[in-house]
Design a protein that fits this description.
By secondary structure, this protein is of the alpha/beta class. It contains 9 helices and 10 strands. Helix 8 links the parallel strand 9 and strand 10. It binds 2-amino-2-deoxy-6-O-phosphono-alpha-D-glucopyranose.
């Protein structure tokens, strides 16, 4: 596991965007695994800028997103499909037919199957990851077991609390999501896990301070990956106790 401590969140995002751009330049038809949430949101403006300045071409790139809320249609302001369109896809020269975000409404079992089929088509060249306050990656929540493939996940109360900031009331936050499984994530060729914010300190301790793998902190499983880079800013790294 390669761990990079940056001066601040901006530097984290720039570095992550540069690493993703590097994958695309080496492989113009790369498959990107993408993430939502405020952390990933900081990365996309750098990719948009690179594309708009002519330095990065997305015309042959295809993408697959980690997860989607069950119950939110694509046009809902908090759906992850809408998030991706607004933060990235609408501003770059990607063909939206080549972007996969699981469908959160309709026949959910069928949507999971469709998502599984999409994942099986092509390996992910680089997977961008944030981390939940409880250590979730994608929406793989802590528990006794973790899942290999795409599935429906019941969201933890702490996840609902954390994501309530995006909704008018806590009651509007969906309680379930379709998520890639831990196996899907670990099968990506390269992982980039970004962490920022004091509320991630407990989860990051499990990742950075010991060798334990725990289903109670799903992010710890990325330790087993042969090509994982964790990017964390100085403030959080100090809080975790990873640096003085
Ligand atoms: C969300 C997403 C995750 C994301 C995490 C952290 O609920 N499903 O993929 O990494 O929680 O989000 P944020 O970056 O907003 O703290």
């Amino acid at each position: 596991m390669k761990i990079i401590v940056t001066e601040n969140f901006q530097e984290t995002c720039k570095l992550a965007a540069d690493m993703i751009a590097d994958v695309i330049r080496k492989k113009p038809d790369a498959r990107l695994g993408l993430a939502t949430g405020s952390t990933a949101q900081g990365v996309y403006p750098f990719l948009v800028e690179a594309n708009q300045s002519g330095a990065l071409d997305f015309s042959r790139v295809n993408t697959v997103n980690l997860d989607e809320y069950v119950g939110l249609p694509p046009e809902h302001p908090q759906s992850y499909r809408r998030f991706m369109d607004e933060n990235l896809f609408d501003h770059i020269n990607i063909d939206k037919k080549n972007t996969v975000v699981a469908k959160g409404t309709g026949d959910i079992e069928e949507n999971v199957k469709e998502f599984r089929d999409a994942l099986a088509k092509k390996p992910i060249d680089v997977q961008l990851l944030g981390i939940g306050v409880d250590g979730h990656v994608g929406f793989n929540e802590p528990g006794y077991v973790l899942y290999d493939g795409a599935h429906v996940e019941e969201l933890d109360e702490s996840t609902i609390d954390a994501n309530a900031r995006f909704f008018a009331t806590r009651d509007e936050v969906p309680t379930r999501a379709i998520s890639m499984g831990m196996g899907d994530i670990l099968r990506a060729k390269k992982l980039l896990l970004l962490a920022t914010g004091e509320n991630k300190a407990e989860a990051m301790k499990g990742l950075l301070l010991n060798e334990e793998l725990s289903a109670q902190n799903p992010a710890t499983l990325v330790k087993t990956h042969p090509d994982v880079t964790v990017i964390i800013d100085r403030a959080l790294a100090k809080r975790v106790g990873y640096i003085q």
